[in-house]
Design goal:
Chain lengths: ~675, ~300
């Protein structure tokens, strides 16, 4: 029986109709494409009325196939599949063709765009004839969730889920959870103490009955798919037995080896070889740094071993591999600070009193190496003048083109702390002040009132080359004040560089493990930049916090909570739909060559040794088609993308080129039969 | 022995003959060849490009076009020559119409140039990269220990497109002399302006710029400033006395080319290196430092 096709061409307001003559396309399809019994154009196909039109035509006209020429299937395929179901048609008998992103938006010439739209509609119509009804599958969702990263975004996600009664594994590669927020002194714009608002959340996560904490551990491998991921985690050897340790800290106290702490203290302070990164660390179990430990250097000392009252120090402890099955994964791996030595003209690393923003956080933190006193590197001199340089490595085409978002506000916070603690004169060098969240602009106004000198301009260099006696012994910030149009020199005692927020060095690597992609800058790509900011293109993998893009604490918390809500929804639903668009192997024709086994990026093909054939694990298959094209015998079929459908689609798109060829073919046949 | 095509430029034939002499001497000592281009012409200096870009590009491109097929790398020690030759290659590579017009002009002389055929190198890059640390250390027979040098890069070699060092705060000359044992001062004005042709237009402006460079070297107690550009060397050395009297100072900072001090480390004599041709004499301070080394060794 010939299929009865309905073709619907969307105007999308003027998005499509502004370039493509949609009425002409619809009319042409009705007249020229075999099997088209209904062909309409409509202002907004995705509207209720548009959907109703499809439903009614299926019922009244007895449509057996539907083609919608509109926007990307990413946006509305679900909408029209639902309309088909409502009308009583299997949803996989719909074909959507994209005449917006692929046509009207990218072409200038209306006539040519109309020709192309016709070809696209023709392709869809030819293809849809061969589409087959498919039934979606459902898999159970494992209710356990893995959260990667114990900074504020990951913590928020963890607690939201755990408080909702769901089990969570929180994975953190540092010895303690807390992330960068634990290093900060105050938070803008309210100036409340960072530790005071963070540590309750940390200890809650540490003690929560629904949370399993894995610190000093890293993700090795992820396999499986939404609902049923298998993860391998490397628990690095702490050299301290987690169960025996009481967290008394005597080992730390007695350890004779002191080293510079480049992690938590940003190089500003020291720690012991066996250490807890900070007093409120969660868990309160020390880590032994074997790279600096005297025992691991020359098998002497062992002070920690001797003093431990519970014999918890274990020099022979090895890394452990932990395997877990989880239903969903939330990635909240945060950021790393820009390396300020990459801009040598700002003097960081050369001029002693040039600081990075993270160094300054530790300098003014009451729990930091100077107990919060703002002093120069000599450890005693209070600066009388401080320069704060914005956009160091951000908004700079030589380094990172993006705006790091948080630095303007952080610099205001720093300016306030400098004035409050030292009374020093502060110059803040900005390109644009960006204070566009609740109460942020008010904070800027407050700092203006506090007497900070804001200089609009990009600092060209920080130098110690004095030109006059007033400059001698100071660092001079050279900058064009673009509001007055003058080159100015500002002699100061201290310079703070507001370095960019950059993706973690191994962000791409983790993205590959989890099957999600990164932007050019290296931040994880969300499913939709506006409407789906915490999901990714891989079902079951969510992102939150700065790993998705620079943002401040409130925004990170919002994303952490949003990701948790998405996961909670999946757990509550209990099962997820798996698209029936999967590959299948005709086992009777399979030679068992196993070429497809290694080609599959999702490890979804298994070899059955007893029968000598391969078969597809449907739940794991993503329908990518790699095996289909790789099979030398051609016995693998991709549902919804079989050869017949693809060839029909190609013939459809070439409808105007096909005619002479077909004519030629017919002529040849006629000739052959004549002779 | 690797041989590079050599473009000395006009300064090295006249005011900066010491640069040319020392470059050739150093190349022999380090074991690389310099084959001077036959019949090279003006590099355009700073004037051509500001007058007529197409004419400038065509005139300069002739120097690239006369390189033989086997001459794939062209070395220019002068900063302006280096920049202009490199810029010409770049402009022809980036803009097809410029490339076509330039080649039309070259065709009148029976020449043709395909951008990218010749790689324009600065001498510093060549010595730092191609010769490298190990070979330099091996070939250095005279330690520069005790000689305090301020490496001065100026503008044209490092900006805008040298491709071998940081454009804002270059370090390659610093590193090179550290290998040779010299005490390299962290000269903060190393890429600042020497005044260029401002000496001809506004002495006030030029002298102030020169003063800053000399002041900083004095503050850092540098024995000398090392240059890699004839213009820089000229401004700092030849105008030093006038800058001194202008500001009521008494500058006595020797200004020489980096290849001259490098030659000393390679055991070459002052005459072979043209040391003594500068106005503020560098010879005595070098001698004094080397003698101090000797007496320290004897003691």
């Amino acid at each position: 029986m010939a299929e009865k096709i309905g073709v619907y061409v969307c105007h999308c307001g003027s998005n499509i109709a502004g370039k493509v003559d949609v009425e002409e396309v619809a009319q042409w399809a009705g007249q020229h494409i075999d099997g088209v019994v209904v062909s309409r154009d409509y202002k907004f196909m995705c509207s209720d009325l548009g959907q109703k039109m499809v439903e009614e035509d299926i019922r009244k006209e007895g449509l057996t196939r539907v083609v919608v020429a509109a926007c990307s299937p990413h946006l509305h395929e679900k909408t029209f599949r639902r309309a088909c179901v409502n009308g009583g048609l299997n949803p996989y008998l719909l074909e959507m063709t994209n005449i917006r992103e692929h046509c009207s938006w990218v072409h200038k010439d209306p006539a040519a765009a109309t020709v192309k739209a016709k070809a696209l509609v023709s392709a869809a119509a030819e293809r849809v004839k061969y589409q087959e009804p498919l039934e979606p599958m459902y898999v159970e969702v494992n209710p356990l969730t893995l959260v990667i990263g114990g900074g504020i975004a990951g913590l928020q996600a963890t607690l939201e889920l755990a408080d909702g009664g769901h089990k969570v594994v929180l994975l953190e590669r540092e010895p303690s959870i807390g992330g960068h927020m634990a290093q900060f002194d105050k938070t803008f714009p309210t100036l409340d103490c960072s530790a005071c608002i963070l540590t309750p959340k940390m200890s809650e996560a540490g003690q929560h009955e629904n949370v399993r904490l894995l610190t000093y551990a890293e993700l090795e491998e992820v396999s499986g798919s939404v609902g049923n991921f298998k993860v391998k985690i490397r628990q690095k050897a702490r050299k301290v037995d987690f169960d025996l340790c009481t967290g008394c800290g005597i080992c730390v106290e007695k350890c004779p080896r002191k080293v510079v702490d480049t992690a938590f203290e940003a190089g500003m302070g020291t720690r012991k070889s066996i250490y807890m990164p900070f007093p409120q660390a969660v868990p309160r179990v020390p880590v032994l740094d074997t790279a600096s430990c005297i025992w691991f250097e020359r098998q002497k000392c062992g002070a920690c071993l001797k003093v431990c009252p519970t014999n918890a120090v274990k020099f022979d402890q090895q890394d452990e591999l932990i395997e877990l099955n989880v239903g969903n994964i939330i990635i909240a791996t945060g950021w790393k600070p820009f390396d300020c030595t990459k801009i040598p003209q700002y003097g960081y690393g050369r001029l002693a009193n040039v600081y990075t923003s993270m160094e300054f956080e530790r300098l003014c933190n009451a729990a930091g190496p100077t107990t919060g006193k703002i002093v120069l590197r000599d450890g005693k001199t209070t600066p009388k003048s401080v320069a704060i340089v914005h956009c160091v490595g951000s908004r700079d085409l030589n380094h990172n083109p993006y705006c790091s978002g948080v630095c303007c506000m952080a610099s205001l916070k720093f300016a306030h702390l400098v004035i409050e603690k030292t009374g020093a004169e502060v110059h803040s060098f900005y390109i644009d002040m960006r204070t566009n969240q609740k109460d942020y602009e008010e904070f800027y106004q407050r700092l203006l009132a506090e007497g900070v000198h804001f200089v609009r301009g990009k600092v060209s260099e920080v130098t110690d080359a004095a030109r006059s006696s007033t400059e001698r012994g100071k660092m001079i910030v050279q900058c064009e004040d673009t509001l007055t149009g003058r080159q100015q020199r500002y002699p100061v005692d201290m310079v703070i560089l507001m370095g960019a927020l950059e993706p973690q060095a191994d962000a791409r690597e983790l993205g590959l493990k989890c099957g999600i992609s990164c932007s050019m800058a290296g931040f994880y790509t969300e499913r939709h930049p506006k409407l789906d900011p915490v999901a990714t293109m891989t079902d079951g993998i969510f992102i939150a916090g700065v790993c998705q893009g620079p943002k401040d604490i409130p925004a990170s918390v919002v994303q952490g909570a949003a990701a948790a809500a998405r996961v909670a929804g999946m757990i509550t639903k209990g099962k997820v739909m798996i698209e029936p668009v999967v590959a299948s192997i005709r086992e009777e024709d399979c030679s068992g060559c196993r070429i497809c086994n290694n080609m599959c990026p999702y490890n979804a093909i298994e070899f059955d040794a007893t029968r000598g054939v391969s078969h597809v694990i449907t739940a794991l298959c993503k329908g990518c088609g790699t095996c289909v094209s790789a099979c030398p015998a051609g016995v693998i079929t991709g549902a919804h993308f079989n050869n017949r459908q693809i060839f029909a689609e190609i013939e459809g798109v070439l409808w105007d080129a096909m005619e002479p060829a077909e004519a030629l073919g017919k002529a040849e046949t006629a000739e052959a039969s004549a002779s | 022995m690797k041989t590079y095509a050599y473009y000395p430029g006009c300064s090295l034939e006249s005011g900066s003959a010491a640069y040319d002499v020392s470059v050739r001497a150093v190349s022999k000592a380090l074991g690389f060849g310099l084959e001077e281009l036959d019949d090279w012409n003006c590099c355009g200096a700073t004037e051509y490009f500001s007058q007529d870009e197409l004419v400038a590009t065509s005139v300069i491109a002739r120097n690239l076009a006369i390189c033989r097929a086997d001459q794939k790398e062209l070395v220019a020690p002068c900063a302006a020559c280096f920049l202009n030759l490199k810029k010409t290659d770049h402009l022809m590579g980036e803009h097809r119409d410029v490339c076509r017009k330039v080649n039309e002009a070259l065709a009148a002389g029976g020449l043709h140039y395909d951008p990218g055929r010749v790689r324009v190198r600065h001498l510093l890059d060549l010595i730092y990269t191609d010769i490298g640390e190990a070979a330099l250390r091996a070939k250095a027979v005279q330690s520069l220990k005790g000689v305090r040098v301020a490496p001065y890069y100026g503008c044209q070699v490092v900006r805008p497109m040298n491709g071998f060092d940081n454009t804002e705060y270059p370090m390659k000359m610093d590193e090179l002399f550290t290998w040779l044992g010299a005490e390299v001062v962290d000269y903060p004005v190393k890429a600042h302006c020497c005044g260029g042709h401002m000496t001809q237009i506004s002495e006030d402006a030029a002298f102030e710029l020169i003063r800053r460079l000399l002041d900083s070297a004095v503050e850092y107690e540098a024995d000398m400033i090392l240059c890699m550009c004839p213009m820089c060397q000229l401004n700092l050395d030849a105008y030093q006395a006038r800058v001194s009297s202008f500001f009521d100072k008494n500058f006595q900072v020797p200004i020489i080319f980096f290849t001259q001090l490098l030659g000393v480390a390679l055991g070459l004599s002052f005459e072979e290196l043209g040391i003594g041709k500068e106005i503020v004499a560098a010879g005595p301070v070098i001698k004094a430092r080397l003698a101090a080394q000797q007496s320290a060794a004897n003691a």
